[in-house]
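Why do we care about 3D structure at all? Because function follows from shape, and shape follows, mostly, from sequence. That is the central idea of this module. The next example makes it concrete: a single protein chain, its amino acid sequence, and then its structure expressed as tokens.
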Amino acid sequence: MPPREEIMRSLKDPVTSTIDAAEAAVLLGISKSHCYHTILEEGSLAGLPVIRVGSRIKIPAEPMRRLLGITANNTQSKHHDEIEVDSGQQSI
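And the structure:
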């Protein structure tokens, strides 16, 4: 698994359209097993949509950027301080 900084660099690249569920777990500070269990139980991850491609699970990059308060051009989102995650739900 790439380190958090490398995953973040990739996420900030506007060409990146999805990230792996395991990479999302690193960015969210949760274990891979908790990530996969949450997706299985809730069908989403912290309110983020998931894309299933065969046995792979991908997370769209743009919703992840919004959740983390970043934009693809490496600047802070104007809503960064307003994002709150509670029980897998995203509130803005």
